[in-house]
Amino acid sequence: YTPEDSRSLAELDESAVEEVEEETSDNRRSLFDAVELRMSAKLMTVITKSQLGCLSLWKDKNESPIKNDTLVSVLRRSSLGEIKWDNAHMTLYCKLVVWRDEVAKNEGLLPGMVCPLDLLVKIALKQPICKDGLRRLSYFFPGLLEDPSLHYVERMLSIVQEAKKNSHTTKSFLARKYPKYMMNNSDNDDLSHNSNCSASNENVDEPESTTDQVEIYDEKTLAEQVAARVTTLKWTAVGAAVVAFWIGSSRPKR
């Protein structure tokens, strides 16, 4: 070969190498234009199914504390006189919901992963002031509450203890002003429920003020919603009874 032929072959080799590198880079590229992606029907099908799956699992709608099934059941039993649930219980429940939302915000989790509403309803109803009393409601705590270094359980129990203290103060005032009424309506459920709690567990830290935070769930609005829900339950029961009566009367008599 002449020197000119050698130079030509070298140029051809370089161009061939560049073509191979371009083809290899095209096959292995990780960045695609959006226009090309829209033309892929299979890819869009996969993305659509993935999006629908995520939306069905992670809902952006907040969980309503008032529409909880356990709370509705407690309100129904309270309206029938089976258990006691008054404004003090509802106020404590609201404070516990606020506490749960704050913990969820600090930890970057969903509120339901901090503590389920069913457990908060039971806590507001029984009002345990120590871990032993809390174990009676749920032996296994959620993960954050099981971690002793985070002190979330102590904070929650301090809210309950403060609510009980305020409730006892109110009862003492009413007992002095209306002794006969309070004598006929005494309630000793809390004593039996917390009888095994030690004094060291009861002496939890004083809670921070949550009065302003409870405004998120306005008590008047809660009371109206609860009353409306109880009324709905009552009328539903009446409607069911009427339907059952007409069904029974419409059957042919033998």
From TrEMBL:
Disordered: annotated segments: 1-20, 189-212
Residue intervals of the HRDC domain: 86-170
Pfam families xrefs: HRDC
Database matches in InterPro entries: HRDC-like_sf (IPR010997), HRDC_dom (IPR002121), HRDC_dom_sf (IPR044876)
An example molecular function term from Gene Ontology annotations: nucleotide binding
Signal peptide: none
UniProt cross-references to Gene3D superfamilies, sorted A to Z: HRDC domain (1.10.150.80)
Acidic residues: compositionally biased ranges: 11-20
Basic and acidic residues bias (residue ranges): 1-10
The protein's name in its UniProt record: HRDC domain-containing protein
